[in-house]
Amino acid sequence: DVKVTQSSRYLVKRTGEKVFLECVQDMDHENMFWYRQDPGLGLRLIYFSYDVKMKEKGDIPEGYSVSREKKERFSLILESASTNQTSMYLCASSLWGDPNTEAFFGQGTRLTVV
Amino acid sequence: AQRVTQPEKLLSVFKGAPVELKCNYSYSGSPELFWYVQYSRQRLQLLLRHISRESIKGFTADLNKGETSFHLKKPFAQEEDSAMYYCALLYNNNDMRFGAGTRLTVKP
């Protein structure tokens, strides 16, 4: 019963590489989110999107960009990976405009930049 | 700024003891608050939402607007409650921000 799928569980990339993290949801949700999860810092919002081709910066957008060409897919891009981007990345989706909404999360991608 | 504060990174209690995980928020509008839980090796998932006034797995949370708090409580903790707990604030009906999380350990 998987609803939000992230393309990779584990990734190891080299400093300076361009990295793509993909997320797909099958619930027809308008909202999609990318968070990074770090011990002691919790979940910090990188970007979110409320519609195709729309995006909003979160708390820590520096060093990241996103792409939402189709409703079901939200990609996180690290233009030039750095070691301080080593983290667990979580994708989530939710219904637009619903105060009772529940965010559904992917299983996470653990990225290591060496 | 909209912010969620969970002051305790770690919380340890014995089985059968009461547990309270603290959450405070700052938001000028009308808050929608949630608790999410992540068990070991599982996805983050919704535990409860304040708008539903529900009790899930024995947990309850009351929104106190005067104290801007949404503390999570359970009268008798169980070992299977051991997990990471995140308080979350939804604002503008779409943007969801999380606290730093509290790792709860329930000892036998």
The rounded distance between the terminal residues' Cα atoms of chain A is 34 Å
Work out the helix count of chain B: 0
The largest contact between protein chains, plus residue counts on each side, is:
A-B, 28 and 24 residues
Rg of chain A is 13 Å
Distance between the termini of chain B: 41 Å
Beta-strand portion of chain A reads over 45%
Mean of residue pLDDT values of chain A: 94
Low-confidence stretches of chain B: none
- Globally, the shape of chain B reads globular
Element-by-element helix/strand order of chain A: EEEEEEEEEEE
Order of helices and strands of chain B: EEEEEEEEEEE
Task: Estimate the helix proportion of chain A, in percent.
Answer: under 10%
Average of pLDDT of chain B: 92
Number-wise, the strands of chain B total 11
Q: How much of the polypeptide of chain B forms β-strand, as a percent range?
A: over 45%
* Form type of chain A: globular
Helix content range of the residues of chain B, please?
under 10%
Number of strand segments of chain A: 11
Major sheet of chain A: 7 strands, mixed
For the report, how would you describe the main beta sheet of chain B?
6 strands, mixed
Enumerate how many helices of chain A there are, as a single number: 0
Entry summary:
The complex is a heterodimer of chains A (114) and B (108). Helices cover 0% and strands 53% of the residues of chain A.
List the helices and strands and how they pair.
The complex is a heterodimer of chains A (114) and B (108).
Chain A (H helix, E strand, L loop, with lengths): L3 E3 L3 E4 L5 E7 L5 E8 L3 E8 L6 E2 L6 E7 L2 E6 L8 E8 L9 E2 L3 E5 L1
Parallel strand pairs in A: 2-11
Antiparallel strand pairs in A: 1-3, 3-8, 4-5, 4-9, 5-6, 7-8, 9-10, 9-11
Chain B lengths: L2 E3 L4 E5 L4 E3 L2 E3 L5 E7 L6 E5 L10 E5 L4 E6 L8 E9 L3 E4 L3 E6 L1
How is this structure best described in words?
The complex is a heterodimer of chains A (114) and B (108). Chain A is 0% helix and 53% strand. The model of chain A has no long low-confidence stretch (mean pLDDT 94). In chain A, a hairpin with a 2-residue loop joins strand 7 (64-70) and strand 8. Chain A is an all-beta fold and 114 residues long. The N and C termini of chain B lie far apart (41 Å). The A-B interface holds A 31, 33, 35, 40-45, 48, 50, 56, 59, 90, 92, 94, 96-103, 105-108 and B 6, 9, 32, 34, 36, 43-46, 49, 51-52, 86, 88, 90, 93-101.
